[in-house]
Amino acid sequence: MPAPPLLALHGVCKRFGVVEVLTDIELEIHAGQVVALLGDNGAGKSTLVKVISGVAPADKGVIKWEGGTVHIRRPHDARDLGIATVYQDLALCGNLDVVGNVFLGREIRRFGFLDEMEMERRTRRLLERLTKNVPDLRAPVVSLSSGQRQTVAIARSLLGGPRVLLLDEPTAALGFEQTTEVLDLVDHLRDSGVGVLLISHSMGDVKALADRAAVLRLGRNNGFFDVNTASQEQIISSITGATENVPRRPATRDAVW
Amino acid sequence: MADNTRAAPAAPTAEAPPPHAGRAVARAVEGWVAVLRRKLSAGELGSLPVVLVLAAVWIVFQSLNQNFLSPRNLSNLSVDIVGTGLIAVGIVFVLLLGQLDLSVGSISGLAAAVFAVLNVNNGVPEWLALILAVLAGTAAGTVQGFSFARTRVPAFVVTLAGLLTWNGLMLYILGTSGTVNLDENGLVAKLTSYYFTNDAAAYAAAAVGAGLVFLVPYQDMRRRKAVGMPHRSLRGIAVRTGAMAVIAFAAAYLLNQFQGLPLALLVFLVVVAGLDIVLRHTHYGRQVYALGGGVEAARRASLRVMRVQTAVLAVSGTMAAIGGLFLASRITSVSQSSGSSVLLLNAIAAAVIGGTSLFGGRGTTWSAVLGMLVIQSIASGMAITDIHTAVQFMITGGVLFAAVVFDALSRRSQEAHGRA
């Protein structure tokens, strides 16, 4: 019996009012693996991220952390487990500076007061790992470019060494060079044993990085693939729901997972 | 943002020239101009505009009446700003959340009534009545804060209900007694009537203030230097301390020309400085700013949103109560008209004119001082030059309008700057 997955979801449901957004979702994230979460717009990808990060807790279902059942009811719970998230809308406070955003909710204190110097030092170190052009650490985030903001959001998620990282479209706002920087980082994190859930619309990124792909369609699981063996056509047809037109491969789902 | 706000004058004096000429100063000024230009384009001017407005107001009234900048008038001015100013400090907290507290006027009246009825009518010792009055404000604010945080109804609606409720409660407590006169020599009356007649007191206060303005950044600079982090230059710190010291000592000199340092002014400045430190250098303050920047973002960063929102309105209620006691002290009486709506409007106007943004997340407690100085200077100048109160309202309204427009424009240019 191999080690249990770092994070596993079983039968997770989420509804907003009368709309059932997620139905019986199954998902596993193993340490040192990148799982791509794929699906068309409105398939429930971002909602699933919010369920795991505690922003929109699940209504039904079981979440297991290293084999043991856990309850994620608020962002605090997810953070305490070691789950960090880069949201699609980044969720930064525009009026705070870069340091303030990176350390928001986890400020370092010295004699009861904020230790700006130490926080600035660590922020710089963190950002230098991520990118070549570090933004002005004392500038309010609202004055940064969207690429720089993305870098800040990623830096914040890395603070404190997360064990599972949820990335919701981390490269959508980035140029070529920065995209490469982010993808390299994901690669590096995988090698250091972090479990990564990557939402991306770029099949190129997915092919290059992911070990496995989980496809959502209309709020339900619609197939799991081994990215190295599955063809791009297979995955895309699963995303678009064209599976009815191609020969079904029921074996795929069981064989891989 | 921090640079400009800390350079705010702590006492009523005209803008001071640099302490001494020389190349060092010239270079520092050059640096400031560069920073200023960058901030101007980014829409972060801090308190510079309001300082310019204040200077203009003082120049105009001084040219209309030679007595305007007399030690006597300035000393009275410095005491007159305290009551409403303390209320405005509470308003700054609420504005930082991007919310509005309409109940502060009523709460200030309620606190004054609680004190008067307990102390004068029921013989409760002054100190106990004082504490209970302030706690009444805290309680009123906490109730409103919790309702606002829980129901997510905008704070201005919750506090509008509060405005009526607390005002009704005040009238109920005062009952048939109507006007209650306070003890002329009591603790509360002393709050605004006591002056440190010894000249040394004002100078000592100025020296302590200037010392802190120097020591805090100096220690920070040394720590940063030790680990090779970017830091401010010693020259920059020295020039700024010099400018602050000139303002502080000039204010102390002026106050000593009349009756000495007013206790009320000292309390006001200490409270403002203390709360400024709380807002900008503690975990709690960082959460307040974060909520002003985006409630959802703060929630996702696992901040306890409801707790912070409740605490902010509790602070505003507490400050309103303290301000109300100072206002009662100034006229040594409490009546059914205590905590009128003009008071509420002045407190909000002061915070906004002083540079605190209506959109949340930007501003410091010093804006309450600067805004009150502008409002009270206009009021005092009008009184001294025999201009009708009606004109005073219109001019104050104009200044407030200008401040709001400026706030909106700087916010927009900041966003445009971000997009560029």
Largest interface: A-B, 32 and 33 residues
Give me the number of helical elements of chain B: 17
Shape of chain A: globular
Radius of gyration of chain B, Cα only, in angstroms? 22 Å
Range of strand content of chain A: 25-35%
By secondary-structure content and strand pairing, the structural class of chain A works out as alpha/beta
Topology (SSEs and partners):
The complex is a heterodimer of chains A (257) and B (420).
Chain A: E1 7-16, E2 19-29, E3 34-39, H1 45-53, E4 60-65, E5 68-70, H2 75-81, E6 83-86, H3 98-102, E7 109-110, E8 113-114, H4 116-130, H5 146-158, E9 164-168, H6 176-191, E10 195-199, H7 203-209, E11 212-217, E12 220-226, H8 232-240, H9 250-256
Parallel strand pairs in A: 3-10, 3-11, 6-9, 9-10
Antiparallel strand pairs in A: 1-2, 1-4, 4-5, 7-8, 11-12
Helix pairs in contact in A: 4-5
Chain B: H1 2-6, H2 23-42, H3 48-64, H4 71-96, H5 104-121, H6 126-151, H7 155-174, E1 180-181, H8 187-193, E2 195-196, H9 199-226, H10 234-258, E3 261-262, H11 263-281, H12 283-293, H13 295-300, H14 305-331, E4 333-334, H15 341-353, H16 366-384, H17 389-419
Antiparallel strand pairs in B: 1-4, 2-3
Helix pairs in contact in B: 3-16, 4-10, 4-11, 4-14, 4-15, 4-16, 5-6, 5-7, 5-14, 6-7, 6-14, 8-14, 9-10, 11-12, 12-14, 15-16, 15-17, 16-17
Name its key features.
heterodimer, A: 257 residues, alpha/beta, Rossmann fold, 2 domains, 6-stranded mixed beta sheet, 9 helices, 12 strands, 34% helix, globular, B: 420 residues, mainly alpha, ABC transporter involved in vitamin B12 uptake, BtuC, two-stranded antiparallel sheet, 4 strands, 76% helix, 2% strand, disordered N terminus
